[in-house]
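Lab notes, practical 5.
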Amino acid sequence: MNGTTRLGGLLAGHPTVPSQPAPDTAPNLPPQTRPPGPGPSQPSRPIGRDDGPADIGAAAELPGALPIPWEEITRLREQVADDINVLRGQRRTTGAPLGDKDLEEAVRARVRSRVATWAQQWSLTHPAPGESDLERIRTELLNLFFLAGGLQRVLDRPGVEDVLVDGAWMYIDSHDRPRERLRSPFSSRAQAVEWVNQMAAASGHGERQLSYASARVEFDLPDGSRVAATLLAEDVVIAIRRHVLERATLADLVQWGAVEPVLAAFLSAAVKAGLSIIIAGDMASGKTTLMRALGREVPAKERLATLESEPELRLNHDAPGAHAHVIAFRTRESNGERDATGRVTLADLVPVSLRYKATRVMVGEVRGDEAVAMLEAMIAGGAGSMCTLHAKDPEAVVDRLLVPLARAGLSDQAAYRLIAAAVDLIVYVDRIDETDLGGQEHRFVTHVWETAGRSEGSGVALGQIFAPREDQGEVRAVPARTPMTERRMRKLERKGFDRRWLAAYPAGQWQPLRRAGGAA
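Output from the prediction step:
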């Protein structure tokens, strides 16, 4: 065990090449947004439809497979846990409770002692385990205390984004390869439930136990990955969502091909200038990753409140002073008690966050009543706030935002007025998934619109600042030659953006898009 997981993976795995040379008369872009040189590409083999169990690997075949039955690991873990509980009680009695460092050292010492004793007894009736076997057992026990236990060796694989265990099978989604299907690391339904409850307890949510009385549970792993488990399906289903791009910045997104330098400079200036932004896109298109990167552009003198039902932005985990001070608010489910404080929604959190003098608000994803509260916050002092919105098509973003506003009781006309008054920019991100063709996933920005009041059709007027140029084979966002509102453009210029870049780089500075089969 090395104490941390390896958060591998890139937003887009295709190689990169140097950007096109700028015209002699073009102003220079900020150096931090210029794309780097070539990067590696990792080929992979798709799983065929006819592959049967004999053709598909098992989790046990991954590095670190356990040499003994899981029941022995469970017994050892319980023994170590009992030892630690006794030690905690002793330390509390003496007035010197265990700190994090002391706890880790104590667990390591108890693990070594218990495994040594176990090995002596095991050798009486079984072949004696070698030192490498004992090290794997010790690592597994430490992982159960500090990491993800039996699934850690899966999560440690570079590029893994999502893992789903469904009964006897496990499905692994990575950024740079087709979906993989392996046998589950759990030998039985009981073992899978036990893993969930052990991890929930270790996360500080020991009261959240998976059982028939409580058929679903959600919690965080120590590395921040989000776990959702349920017994409501035919078998035990465990979904783990990884945060492989937790530290991504705008410069990283340029490197990975999600944005290009002109667009990155534009978005950076928009955030610093306090423009309110909605980031829209389909599922798994990179909305949260982009908003996380934009959050790191908020000036350090400000205070930023993040409102989420699941902790994905995690900007509060960055080094102090790297960007704005971040207060991370989370929703809370009802505890079922009449007289106790009950459910806290995203809509409840918006006004709460403003009471703590947050100058900006970021909502992880707008789905319901929080849409009204969010837009009102953008108007009433929360300039520069941001949120994400699920929308399958770029042209449907405004109509998609009307849905939660209508549920909150607003008429279409009232909703249009609220959107036009609150929102400055709408950014759309898209994804091309070619892993089934032997290619890779590509995620990138395709559109940036500026809101421009009400339209003649009583909707919201939008001006395209960046858009694809599909007649020239470019599906990503390039300057659209639409003039931006002068008032907003002057705000961007005060934050370092040069409006001449939009004319000087009409095709942007995108790296070539490496499509499967050689298509551009």
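Observations recorded by the TA: The chain has two domains: 31-41+245-506, 53-241. Residues 53-241 form a domain with the Beta-Lactamase fold (CATH 3.30.450.90).
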